[in-house]
Specification:
This protein has 191 residues and is mainly β. It contains no helices and ten strands.
């Protein structure tokens, strides 16, 4: 049997609308992290798999970031792609930023909610609120083990340190070994 670690592609960060002068730019959510242990395999058999790409960042014409792609391995559950950084002026909105971990949300005029993470894979993206006329960071995307920070600091949610998992012995000595960190929010400056 084998142990299998899968990580989905991360979500793209939110772009800037050309008329948007007050909202920070929210970070994309991390790709979902899935670990399965003791998976039965047949020696010599081919196992189909795919590695999810990260989502594209939002443009000035389509400012929500794209979701990342899922990562697959045989018949195991997919590691979901992370949600894209989101923008909305609708209070409470944020569902389109959902994914393995949710994308952060940003708005110059409303309190909005980051995208939802998927249980067992990641965490929610950070929330936003009206922030007119000051410098600040957009909400961070969710990470494997922690939610993204709300507007203000722009910190993405923490990833999973795989040195604390069954894969610890596979890590070369002295190498960092974290997966599934959320994207940080971009800074909005006053001029």
């Amino acid at each position: 049997s084998i142990d299998v670690l899968r990580v989905g592609g991360g979500g793209g960060g939110r772009g800037r609308l050309t008329t948007d002068t007050n909202a920070g730019h929210s970070g994309g959510g991390a790709g979902g992290v899935k670990i399965d242990t003791g998976v039965t395999v047949t020696p010599g058999a081919n196992i189909p798999y795919s590695i999810g790409n990260g989502g594209a960042g939002g443009s000035s014409g389509s400012f929500a970031g794209a979701a990342g792609q899922n990562t697959t391995f045989g018949a195991l559950a997919d590691a979901l792609g992370g949600g894209g950084g989101h923008f909305s002026n609708t209070p409470g909105d944020g569902a389109t930023g959902a994914g393995g971990s949710g994308g952060g949300n940003s708005s110059p005029t409303a309190s909005t909610i980051g995208g939802n993470g998927t249980s067992g894979q990641g965490s929610n993206g950070g929330n936003s609120a009206s922030r007119t006329g000051i410098s600040y960071y957009g909400a961070g995307g969710g990470g494997a083990t922690a939610v993204g920070a709300n507007y203000g600091t722009g910190i993405g949610g923490a990833g999973l340190d795989i040195a604390t998992t069954i894969f610890a012995d596979a890590i070369p000595l002295g190498c960092p070994a974290s997966v599934g960190g959320g994207g940080g929010g971009g800074r909005r400056e006053t001029w």
